[in-house]
Amino acid sequence: MSAHRQPSRLLAATRRLLQEREALTVELLDRSGQHAAAERRARAFVQALPRSPFAPSLRRVLEAKP
């Protein structure tokens, strides 16, 4: 692999890990009863990254709210 491609792969992996971290944070907030915080973060995530592989699980958090 050429040296100029490695930074882009690293950046893509970092973005995915950051998205996963945020999705896990939302899930933990929701499970711990911090529903308002989970909803705020889920809504912000889905608006910013609607095509993320983590967006469907965060949409489920939003849909579960009254």
Task: Explain briefly what this protein structure is.
This protein is mainly α. The chain has three helices and no strands.
Q: Which helices and strands occur, and which strands form pairs?
A:
Blueprint: H1 6-31, H2 35-48, H3 55-63
Helix pairs in contact: 1-2, 1-3, 2-3
Indicate the overall shape: elongated
Largest sheet: none
Mean of pLDDT: 92
Cα(first) to Cα(last) distance is 50 Å
Low-confidence stretches: none
Domain count: the total is: 1
Number of helical runs? 3
Helical content class:
over 70%
Supply the helix-strand structural class: mainly alpha
Count of β-strands: 0
Helix-strand pattern: HHH
Report on the structure:
There is one protein chain. Helix content is 74%, strand content 0%. The chain has three helices and no strands. Helix 1 (6-31) runs antiparallel to helix 2. The chain is mostly helical. The protein is elongated. The relative contact order is 0.14.
Notable characteristics:
elongated
